[in-house]
Amino acid sequence: MCIRDSFGIENGEFTRNGITVSGMSFEGKFNNGKENSLETSALFLKNIKFAIEEEKISGQLYIENLKKPMISAQADASFYLQKLNQFLKIKDLSEEQGKIGAKFKVKCKLNKLNDITKNDIKIKKIEGQVHLDDIGFCWKAVSYTHLDVYKRQ
Q1: For residues 138 and 94, is the Cβ–Cβ distance under 8 A?
Q2: Strands across the sheet with 93-110, in order?
Q3: 76 in Cβ contact with 59 (< 8 Å)
Q4: Where are the beta strands (DSSP E) in 17-120?
Q5: Alpha-carbon distance 108 to 39, whole Å?
């Protein structure tokens, strides 16, 4: 059965892993593709706006193949790394500190949607600007601490 739908949210809110996402709004479209399966399904979210504990994020998101997703995203975001990982629960990321401001576009492929590790993320393309403020983290066997990057305004 072919499924196509348009939907949206205005002023939504939810909590995941102790982190509250508030003021959420977006417009979305979904279809399950010509084979009516997860592999041929696509999801498009535009005019995305929300806050994670007072830090605002906006952008758009396109996902093809919901079994092994190919993701294209555009975002303007500001967030604390520790809060982001508390929300996402990326297993290979630990000892997070500092704040990231970013305006970027990214294309990536995920091997799965749950229990994501660094081996499940394949970045195809990324471009934009990133501002790092006292960033530190461990990414499995690699450790980065107190990265101070000159901020251009």
Answers
A1: yes
A2: 4-16, 19-31, 42-52, 55-64, 70-80, 93-110, 121-139, 142-147
A3: yes
A4: 19-31, 42-52, 55-64, 70-80, 93-110
A5: 16
Closest C-alpha among 67, 69, 49, 66 to residue 57: 49
What's the pTM?
Answer: 0.70
Is the separation of the CB atoms in 127 and 108 below 8 Å? no
- The two tokens of residue 16 are 């995941």
| Residue with tokens 């102790």, as numbered in its chain | 18
Contact 111, 120 (CB under 8 A): yes
CA angle 140, 142, 147 (to 5 degrees): 120
For residues 70, 63, 94 and 104, what is the CA-based torsion angle, rounded to 10 degrees? 90
Q: Count CA within 13 A, CB hemisphere, residue 49.
A: 5
Contact call for residues 80 and 101 (beta carbons, < 8 A): no
Give per-residue pLDDT as tens, 65-118.
988 899 999 999 998 888 888 888 887 788 888 998 999 999 999 887 677 777
